[in-house]
């Protein structure tokens, strides 16, 4: 288990050294140089055949030279094969970050050591998982006996979950460069790809007020009007009379006020839609990845306020076999964000439609205590009947907020100039879609449901702002 969000960020910047292992030969084949020489030899045969028509005598002399060159090439290839087919003393190791964050560029370091008797010319390539993209590979390196070299390359994760690296694949040239021996060095390694947790670590050292300013939000001052007692302090201008502690004032012979803080120990449960609509993309990341980033950031702000945060994901892709993934009862404290990260790092959206009613019934069965339930989804007007029924069911026990991701592609379509009849049809369809969606949001508000409608890349700010307004208003 990871220790905390800051440790995750430090691990992403620091490196954990892989185990060195001796190379394992897995095959040998001709190099480009040998293939090119054979090609030239065959081309010379064609030229000599053509020369027989015009210069038979010269062609006969050239044919003798051609046979000699072929014999020389064959002998050199056989000798080079015998001397270069074994690669002795080549060791390697891979240095990976402790954890990776989705979409964040990292660097991987490969270390190669030549403990063998001869110099090696290498083409180095790493076996990178398909969910990661690597650049600047393969790399060329030359190692003299006893020499060690370090190569690094950039790596960007594009999918969360566990990433499994194979060995480091090396093509070692024979002494004359006519053959290449495939050697595997290093050991297979695994690393976890988490949602982008770097925003959390950047907030860890900040106070609540500083965190809000960092996110671009403005905190409205509300001095001493919370529900939980915090401390006694000297009376300040603007304090209400009911804040004055008359016993403490009489004992100290000066006015003393009670200061309160917002209630703590509240529960916030995120209902995360993992259905097929969340697979839509605006930019490089899907709506689901944007929702996870926003969920983690807003959950961290709530945990810093002393509240407990839980998760109930539904319609997720369970092909990985972890049916417990995406389910977390409300937890408190700094360790809560680590539990949340480990619950969602390999959680992926599925291909099924979201079952709002079923998810609401499951949540009511597992969370009897009143909580703020935040449903994160991508709403469409065809969901109205099922969604309104699920929200009405949840509202009997919980305070419900619906956070819907607005598709940027639809907004961009409305901003395009209408030049053709096809453009007019697309614009009309987009306006009709948005009007239907707006009616659904209005129906939710009419049922006293809090609504957040935000673009995917702004959802984290919208969630934090809505949570903070509820906290300051005393509704949670």
TrEMBL record:
Pfam families: DUF58
The organism's place on the tree of life at top rank: Bacteria
The DUF58 domain, residue ranges: 232-408
Keyword terms, alphabetized: Membrane, Transmembrane, Transmembrane helix
Transmembrane helix is among the record's keywords: yes
Coiled-coil region: none
Transmembrane region(s): 34-53, 65-84
InterPro entries for the chain: DUF58, vWFA_dom_sf
Official protein name in the record: DUF58 domain-containing protein
Source organism: Microbulbifer taiwanensis
């Amino acid at each position: 288990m990871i220790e905390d969000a800051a440790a995750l960020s430090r691990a992403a910047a620091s490196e954990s050294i892989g185990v060195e292992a001796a190379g394992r030969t897995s095959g040998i084949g001709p190099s480009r140089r040998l293939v090119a020489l054979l090609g030239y030899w065959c081309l010379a045969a064609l030229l000599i055949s053509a020369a027989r028509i015009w210069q038979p005598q010269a062609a006969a002399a050239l044919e003798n030279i051609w046979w000699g060159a072929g014999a020389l090439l064959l002998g050199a290839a056989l000798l080079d094969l015998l001397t270069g087919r074994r690669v002795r003393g080549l060791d390697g190791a891979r240095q990976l970050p402790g954890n990776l964050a989705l979409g964040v560029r990292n660097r991987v370091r490969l270390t190669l050591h030549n403990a063998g008797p001869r110099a090696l010319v290498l083409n180095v390539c790493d076996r990178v998982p398909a969910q990661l993209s690597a650049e600047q590979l393969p790399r060329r390196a030359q190692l003299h006996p006893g020499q060690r070299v370090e190569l690094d390359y950039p790596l960007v994760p594009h999918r969360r979950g566990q990433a499994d690296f194979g060995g480091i694949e090396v093509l070692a040239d024979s002494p004359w460069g006519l053959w290449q021996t495939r050697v595997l060095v290093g050991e297979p390694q695994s690393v976890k790809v988490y949602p982008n947790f770097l925003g959390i670590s950047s907030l860890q050292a900040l106070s609540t007020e500083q965190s809000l300013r960092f996110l671009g939000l403005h905190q409205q001052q509300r001095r001493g009007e919370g529900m939980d007692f915090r401390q006694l302090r000297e009376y300040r201008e603007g304090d209400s009379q009911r804040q004055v502690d008359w016993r403490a004032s009489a004992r100290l012979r000066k006015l003393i006020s009670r200061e309160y803080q917002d209630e703590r120990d509240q529960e916030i449960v995120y209902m995360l839609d993992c259905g097929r609509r969340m697979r839509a993309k605006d930019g490089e990341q899907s709506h689901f990845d944007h929702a996870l980033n926003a969920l983690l950031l807003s959950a961290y702000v709530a945990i810093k306020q002393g509240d407990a945060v839980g998760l109930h994901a539904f319609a997720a892709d369970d092909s990985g076999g972890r049916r417990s993934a995406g389910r977390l009862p409300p937890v408190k404290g700094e360790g809560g964000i680590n539990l949340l990260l480990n619950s969602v790092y390999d959680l992926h959206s599925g291909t099924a439609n979201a079952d709002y009613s079923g998810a609401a019934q499951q949540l009511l069965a597992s969370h009897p205590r009143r909580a703020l339930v935040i449903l994160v989804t991508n709403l469409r007007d065809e969901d109205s009947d099922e969604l309104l029924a699920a929200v009405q069911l949840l509202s009997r026990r919980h305070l419900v907020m619906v956070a819907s991701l607005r598709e940027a592609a639809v907004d961009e379509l409305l901003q395009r100039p209408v030049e053709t009849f096809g453009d007019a049809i697309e614009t009309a369809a987009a306006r009709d879609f948005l009007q239907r969606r707006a009616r659904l949001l209005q129906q939710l508000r009419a049922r006293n449901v809090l609504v957040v409608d935000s673009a995917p890349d702004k959802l984290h700010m919208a969630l934090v702002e809505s949570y903070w307004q509820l906290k300051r208003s005393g509704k949670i």
